[in-house]
């Protein structure tokens, strides 16, 4: 959940960040093209993804300069400047050594950070990224310059509008909530002009020569059906980063937040901690107990505020004592009563009696 932004300063530029969780190791997440520190939490699948990461790490989120809640800058920042913002954020939170996870274009920054600051990098996770977005000699899997120009024109025309998710999340193409979230997310993250310039900058990046210099543990996660970054991009990382591990997902999504989330999160947790825990269940069997103060409104009027609130406090105290005795868990309390759950029916009945 978003609890407010803090700011790290890198020169004259303010970089917005948030820390979630208090796990034993630090993990900084570098998102792709654009981001917005607060609005990432408004997509339920992404919020669940972030919460799971924060369950076993101290998760550090930030908006790169030029987007989201960080300072807008002109001209657009270089990759090296944005990479150095990662260092500034880590300094601000007191992190001496961290794992770095980059999704999409964020994987490029993660590689550059690991090569530049190996002593501060515990490991890197590269998800759905590419060493070069453009087709180049020796790298035939990128897009052409003509395709780049079409992409720039399309971004300018559709920025902030609801579009289908066939590129980023084809599995969600029939889920209109994802497309609506993306439309608002893009508007909040950058202006159309800035978005186009960032897309141009990201597309021109080529870090192939950097990869052999990466000497930290590396996990590469890539969907075999990714339409944004082809699987060959992930394989190129694995072949050129020493001792890298590649996980190929049987998936068509570029984003890892939906059907692939449990697999991805399990791999990330095991890579970072050496263990893998099951995700919390979506459902549970429980017995619900509710107390109800009959005619609460009438009693409140008759007794007056002071006596009524004393009565409510007394009621809650009696109920909470019983819950403690019979191992119940309070989930709601108000002037009309208390709601609690028990993992055994017999205890709930004994508590009620």
List keywords for this structure.
Rossmann fold, Alpha-Beta Plaits, 2 domains, 8-stranded mixed sheet, 11 helices, 11 strands, 18% strand
Blueprint (SSEs and pairs):
Elements: E1 6-10, E2 13-20, E3 26-30, H1 44-56, E4 58-62, H2 79-93, E5 98-103, H3 106-116, E6 121-127, H4 145-158, H5 176-189, H6 192-204, E7 218-223, H7 231-240, E8 245-249, H8 261-273, E9 287-290, H9 296-303, H10 305-325, E10 329-334, E11 337-342, H11 345-352
Helix pairs in contact: 1-8, 2-3, 4-6, 9-10
Number of helices: 11
**Total number of β-strand segments?**
11
Poorly predicted ranges: none
Terminal Cα span = 39 Å
Form type: elongated
Helix content: 25-40%
Instruction: Strand order, main sheet: write it out.
Output: 1-2-4-3-5-6-7-8
Indicate the proportion of strand residues: 15-25%
Give a description of the structure.
- The structure is a single chain.
- With 353 residues, this protein is an alpha/beta fold.
- The chain has two domains: 6-273, Alpha/Beta hydrolase fold, catalytic domain (Rossmann fold, 3-Layer(aba) Sandwich); 287-352, Alpha-Beta Plaits, CATH 3.30.70.
- The protein is 40% helix and 18% strand.
- The strands form two sheets. An eight-stranded mixed β-sheet has the order 1-2-4-3-5-6-7-8, with helices on both faces. A three-stranded antiparallel β-sheet has the order 9-11-10.
- Helix 4 runs antiparallel to helix 6 and helix 9 packs across helix 10.
- The chain starts with 5 loop residues before the first strand and ends with a helix.
- The model has no long low-confidence stretch (mean pLDDT 90).
């Amino acid at each position: 959940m978003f609890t407010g932004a803090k700011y790290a300063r890198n020169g004259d530029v303010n970089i917005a960040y948030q820390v979630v969780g208090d796990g034993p190791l630090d993990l900084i997440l570098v998102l792709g093209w654009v981001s917005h520190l607060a609005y990432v939490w408004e997509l339920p699948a992404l919020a669940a993804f972030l919460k799971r990461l924060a369950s076993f790490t101290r998760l550090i989120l930030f908006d790169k300069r030029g987007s989201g809640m960080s300072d807008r800058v002109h001209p657009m920042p270089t990759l090296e400047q944005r990479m150095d913002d990662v260092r500034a954020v880590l300094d601000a939170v007191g992190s001496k050594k961290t794992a770095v996870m980059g999704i999409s274009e964020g994987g490029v920054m993660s590689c550059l950070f690991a090569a530049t600051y190996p002593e501060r990098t515990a490991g890197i996770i590269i998800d759905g990224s590419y060493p070069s977005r453009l087709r180049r000699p020796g790298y035939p899997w990128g897009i052409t310059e003509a395709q780049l120009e079409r992409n720039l024109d399309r971004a300018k025309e559709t920025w902030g509008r609801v579009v289908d998710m066939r590129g980023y999340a084809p599995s969600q193409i029939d889920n209109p909530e994802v497309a609506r979230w993306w439309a608002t997310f893009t508007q909040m993250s950058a202006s159309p002009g800035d978005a186009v310039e960032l897309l141009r900058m990201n597309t021109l990046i080529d870090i192939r020569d950097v990869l052999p210099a990466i000497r930290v543990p590396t996990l590469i996660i890539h969907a075999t059906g990714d339409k944004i970054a082809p699987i060959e991009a992930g394989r190129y990382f694995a072949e050129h980063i020493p001792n890298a591990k590649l996980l190929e997902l049987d998936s068509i999504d570029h984003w890892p937040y939906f059907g692939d989330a449990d697999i991805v999160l399990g791999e990330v947790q095991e890579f970072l901690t050496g263990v893998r825990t099951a995700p919390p269940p979506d459902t549970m069997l429980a017995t619900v107990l509710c107390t109800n103060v009959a005619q609460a409104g009438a009693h409140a009027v008759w007794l007056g505020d002071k006596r009524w609130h004393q009565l409510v406090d007394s009621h809650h105290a009696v109920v909470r004592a019983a819950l403690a005795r019979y191992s119940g868990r309070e989930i709601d309390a108000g002037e009309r009563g208390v709601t609690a759950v028990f993992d055994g029916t017999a205890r709930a009945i004994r508590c009620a009696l």
